[in-house]
Write a structure and sequence with these properties.
Elements: E1 2-6, H1 9-16, E2 24-27, H2 31-38, E3 43-45, H3 61-71, E4 76-80, H4 97-118, E5 123-127, H5 144-154, E6 157-161, H6 162-172, H7 176-181, E7 188-193, E8 195-199, E9 202-207, H8 211-225, E10 234-237, H9 252-267
Parallel strand pairs: 1-2, 1-10, 2-3, 4-5, 5-6, 6-7, 7-10
Antiparallel strand pairs: 8-9
Helix pairs in contact: 4-5
Length: 271
């Protein structure tokens, strides 16, 4: 399993100084950032595609295809998301089977468009966080049964975002291990990981890993090591970045301290 980290000036400087070791930089589909990051390490691109909107006709598919080819990014990801603005008649916490079916049909339609272009075996579907009435994501799209059905019907892989699953379980009042165990873990192709903190009245990610986060990651890695779950090609530490959103979430000392811990955990796994 390879290790990547969000590209940031801080992470780039640490790599230049050989103070951390990573296999890849993770970037969005931003050509300028890809060029900068590629000077230091190979790049894996995390795309901004989303389901549930029916608006994929505006995507520059040729550009995405070129980026995948030029960076050798093995999968094209799509975020499994349905928001209140796209389904204004559906209550955010709905468990109505009619609502579930409507959301499912739109997700399948959007995913099919991506699969038709790249092949289902090249598409990975990422679980998103649910925060109940304080957020904009509709509950049906984060239900394990829904995610499992979508993976099974499309033949795509799962991008398991551990932190998203953690926040979702907290919002639902579920045990996070039980929630993740109900997902299609046999289809995992990639992992995302960061710390989850309770700040300003809600749970947030893209933060330093805490003790509970490390324990959850160890549980995930043990399940993979045992062969009970599929072995992903990469884990991304989604800490740090570029822009206003990441100004206070790209601390050099955090990266310098936590990347070696993560690297050791990943590289100690038996192949």
């Amino acid at each position: 399993m390879y290790l990547s980290i969000n590209y940031s000036k801080q992470a780039a400087e640490l790599v230049k100084k050989k103070q951390i070791e990573i296999d890849f930089f993770k970037t969005p589909e931003w050509v300028d950032m890809i060029a900068k990051a590629s000077q230091l390490r190979p790049v894996c691109v995390h795309f901004s595609l989303k389901t549930g909107r029916g608006k994929l006709e505006d995507i520059d598919w040729q550009l995405l295809s070129e980026i995948m080819k030029e960076t050798n990014t093995p999968y094209i990801n799509i975020h499994l998301i349905s928001k209140t603005k796209d389904f204004p008649h559906i209550p955010i916490n709905s468990t109505d089977p009619i609502h579930q079916e409507e959301i499912l049909e739109q997700a399948l339609t959007d995913i099919q468009e991506v699969s038709d272009r790249f092949g289902a075996e090249k598409v990975i579907i990422e679980n998103v966080p649910y925060r109940g009435k304080s957020w904009k994501v509709l509950r049906p799209i984060i239900e394990p049964e829904m995610i499992t059905k979508i993976i099974q019907e499309t033949g795509c892989g799962l991008l398991l975002d551990i932190s998203h699953a953690h926040m979702t379980a907290l919002s639902l009042g579920w045990d996070v291990k039980e929630y993740i165990s109900q997902l299609p873990v046999e289809a995992i192709r990639e992992l995302h990981f960061t710390g989850v903190h309770y700040l300003d009245g809600w749970h947030q990610d893209h933060l330093p890993a805490l003790e509970a986060d490390w324990k959850l990651l160890d549980w995930v890695l043990n399940a993979i090591q045992s062969g009970a779950w599929a072995n992903p090609w990469m884990i991304a530490f989604e800490y740090g970045g570029v822009g206003e959103r990441f100004e206070n979430r790209s601390e050099t000392e955090v990266i310098k301290e936590q990347i070696p811990i993560l690297y050791q955990k990943i590289k100690s796994l038996k192949s």
